[in-house]
Amino acid sequence: xxxxxxxxxxxxxxxxxxxxxxxxxxxxxxxxxxxxxxxxxxxxxxxxxxxxxxxxxxxxxxxxxxxxxxxxxxxxxxxxxxxxxxxxxxxxxxxxxxxxxxxxxxxxxxxxxxxxxxxxxxxxxxxxxxxxxxxxxxxxxxxxxxxxxxxxxxxxxxxxxxxxxxxxxxxxxxxxxxxxxxxxxxxxxxxxxxxxxxxxxxxxxxxxxxxxxxxxxxxxxxxxxxxxxxxxxxxxxxxxxxxxxxxxxxxxxxxxxxxxxxxxxxxxxxxxxxxxxxxxxxxxxxxxxxxxxxxxxxxxxxxxxxxxxxxxxxxxxxx
Length: 319
Hints:
- By secondary structure, the protein is of the alpha/beta class.
- The protein has a single domain (3-267), classed as Spore Coat Polysaccharide Biosynthesis Protein SpsA, Chain A (Alpha-Beta Complex).
- Helices cover 31% and strands 22% of the residues.
- Strands 1, 2, 3, 4, 5, 6, 7, 8, 9 and 10 form a ten-stranded mixed β-sheet that branches. It has a two-stranded antiparallel sheet with strand order 11-12.
- Strand 2 (64-69), helix 3 and strand 3 (84-88) form a beta-alpha-beta unit.
- The radius of gyration is 19 Å and the shape is globular.
- The chain starts with 18 loop residues before the first helix and ends with a helix.
């Protein structure tokens, strides 16, 4: 990809140094706001967390749409003063919940949506900055500005939309970098590499392209890790996914706090849950000997599915 097409115009103003800063300036222009008058819906599945972390430090009204089980609607009703709250029926796990959200977006005619876990603590954009120790690394814009890193930065979502517009048209899933992986200077103004990293937890979905391809989320009782399963299915069918290295998100470690959609899985022990999910994925999604799939131990100490990015990149290059 020619990265020059991503810079946009600063309207003759003083140029900043890094790509994300240039695009941040461009997203404030009349030209950008004319083509993107609104941020795409930010859809949030939530269960047993009526005061979710994703609401910490929301600095302006964003188009958040909460999807909650109907029986829990009374707990979430207070959110309707600021955001949309959609009750859903007939779901028993996070895979089924995400499928309902994708169907809702399709019926409503949304071509693109964002989907965030309810414990996402921050979304921001990245550029190099100096740490307290005097080292230079990729840092969130608010840290570089001396502000706390928490909450959803609206500019980050506008930058995200700018990137999506300019990615290959068969790109159906994108995500920012996860904060623990985001510090390395190799990400400074880096080329976007397709099918090269996990697209989970905090994602964008091209709704129309997924529906055209017949791809949606499956029940976690069938596929296990529903977010990895939909990325696998997309790449296996020849579509593309991308991690946008100018953006960053953060969230607490798995199982570090109560509630959440996975809390409804029926497994009190997360090790047992992930063990079962791995078996389901290998049985019903990829098969046991797929060259693009392996197993790893996560940061939280759970065995989980790991996609072989070398395989998926090579597959993409052959298309």
